[in-house]
Specification:
By secondary structure, the protein is mainly β. Helices cover 1% and strands 41% of the residues. One of its GO terms (biological process) is RNA metabolic process. Keywords: Nucleus, Repeat, WD repeat.
C-alpha cells in the first residue's frame, strides 16, 4: 500500500502535494473562511492488487471521533485504515469469509462494526488491533443497507432489504428493538441522540421516531414525494443515497441519484432547497437498488461539521452549497456556491469531524485540505 501524491498532470500548478494536515490553515478555522480553498491533496492507491485482478471499489468511508483515523470498506473484502495526521496508510484488515461494507468506527477508535456481504447478513463487531471478532449481531434476513451509530453511545440502528429496522445495544448480540417497515433503506440519528429517522424510498416517506418511545410509531412523517420541485417532477424518485441530520439538528439532508439533493426542515419536513447538481450524479447505486455489476456506496454527500455547508461528489468535481443562501423562490433550486475542481469521480464522501479536511473515493482514496495559496 502506498500513499501517492497526485499525478502532477492532474494537479493544479499551485498544489503542494507533500504538505501535512492543515496545509498552513489552522484546523479550527471556521469552514466559511476556507470552504473555497479545499483542494485534492493526497491520493492513496492500492499497490497490493495482484496483476490481472480488478481494482476494487471503495464502498464506504468513515472517520473516528477524534478525526485521526480514516477507514474504508472495499469490494475486495478488505478494510483499510489510514492515519490522517501523518497522511499514511496504517493497516489492512481482511474479511474474505464474510465480505464487508458500511464499516463504521464505534466511539472507541480500536473497534468497528460492519455489514456482511457473504454467507449471511450478520453485522460484525471487530477489534482492529488484532483483527478479532468481539460479537456477531444476527437478526436480519436480507442485505443490510444502512448502519447508524448513536451519537452518544455505541448503540446503533441497522436497516435491511428484509423490510426491518433493528435497534441494537452493542453489549449484547440480541437486538433490543424491531420495526417492520416498507423499504427502510436509510437511517440517521439526530445530534442529540433523542430521535432517529428512517427513509423509505419506495413509499417516499421519512419517518422520525422518539428513541425512548419508538414502539408507539413515528412522531413525524415527512412525505418527500409530495414536495414537487418544478422542472424536476421525478426528483424524489431517483434513488435515495444518504440520510443525515445537520449538527445543529435543524436540517435533514436526503441524498439522491437524481439531479440534486434535498435539504429538508427537520421540524416540519418542508423542502428548504433542492441542491442542484450540475453535470448529474455519480454512477453508484443507491442502497437497496439491484443492478448487475452495479456498486453501492455509503453516500456521496454530507454536511460540514458547522451545519452550514453541504458537500457532494459527482462524476467530476466536488460541489458545495451554502445553506444560508436563498434558493430560487419559484422552484427552491439552490445552485452550488463553490465547485472544487477534480477529474476523478467522487462516489463516496465524508467530512472529518475534527479537522478541516475531506475524504472522497471511488477506486482510490483522496484527502482534501484547504490550500492557503489557492
Amino acid at each position: 500500500m502506498t500513499s501517492t501524491p497526485m499525478d502532477l498532470d492532474d494537479a493544479p500548478s499551485s498544489l503542494n502535494v507533500i504538505r501535512s494536515l492543515g496545509g498552513g490553515v489552522p484546523s479550527t478555522s471556521p469552514v466559511s473562511e476556507i470552504v473555497s480553498l479545499y483542494r485534492p491533496t493526497k491520493l492513496f492507491k492500492r499497490d497490493d492488487i495482484k496483476e490481472g485482478k480488478p481494482k476494487p471499489h471503495i464502498l464506504s468511508v468513515d472517520f473516528d471521533d477524534p478525526g485521526e483515523l480514516c477507514m474504508t470498506s472495499e469490494s475486495d473484502e478488505t478494510i483499510q485504515i489510514y492515519n490522517v495526521k501523518e497522511g499514511r496508510h496504517e493497516k489492512s484488515l481482511l474479511s474474505k469469509k464474510y465480505g464487508v461494507k458500511l464499516a463504521k468506527f464505534t466511539h472507541t477508535s480500536t473497534s468497528i462494526i460492519y455489514a456482511s456481504t457473504q454467507q449471511n447478513d450478520a453485522i460484525r463487531y471487530l477489534a482492529t488491533h488484532d483483527n478479532s471478532f468481539i460479537r456477531y449481531f444476527e437478526g436480519h434476513e436480507g442485505s443490510v443497507t444502512s448502519l447508524a451509530l448513536h451519537p452518544g453511545s455505541d448503540n446503533f440502528i441497522s436497516c435491511s432489504l428484509d423490510d426491518t429496522v433493528l435497534i441494537w445495544n452493542i453489549s449484547t448480540k440480541q437486538w433490543v428493538g424491531k420495526l417492520f417497515l416498507n423499504t427502510p433503506h436509510l437511517a440517521a440519528w439526530d445530534p442529540s441522540g433523542n430521535s432517529f429517522a428512517i427513509a423509505s424510498p419506495l413509499s417516499g416517506y421519512i419517518l422520525i421516531y422518539d428513541y425512548r418511545n419508538y414502539e408507539k410509531g413515528p412522531v413525524t412523517t415527512i412525505d418527500v414525494l409530495s414536495n414537487r420541485i418544478p422542472g424536476y417532477p421525478d426528483a424524489a424518485a431517483r434513488g435515495w443515497t444518504k440520510l443525515e441530520f445537520s449538527n445543529d439538528g435543524k436540517h435533514i439532508l436526503l441524498g439522491s441519484r437524481g439531479g440534486g439533493h434535498f435539504l429538508l426542515d427537520a421540524f416540519d419536513g418542508s423542502v428548504k432547497a433542492y441542491l442542484k447538481k450540475p453535470g448529474g450524479s455519480t454512477r453508484r447505486l443507491a442502497p437497496g437498488q439491484v443492478d448487475a455489476g452495479g456498486v453501492e456506496s455509503s453516500g456521496e454527500c454530507c454536511f460540514a461539521p458547522d451545519a452550514r455547508y453541504v458537500f457532494s461528489g459527482a462524476r467530476s468535481d466536488l460541489l458545495v452549497w451554502d445553506t444560508l443562501m436563498a434558493p430560487n423562490p419559484d422552484d427552491k433550486v439552490l445552485e452550488p456556491a463553490h465547485v472544487l475542481e477534480e477529474q476523478r469521480e467522487a462516489a463516496v464522501l465524508a467530512h472529518n469531524p475534527r479537522f478541516n479536511m475531506l475524504a472522497s473515493a471511488d477506486q482510490d482514496l483522496m484527502f482534501w485540505l484547504p490550500d492557503p495559496n489557492a
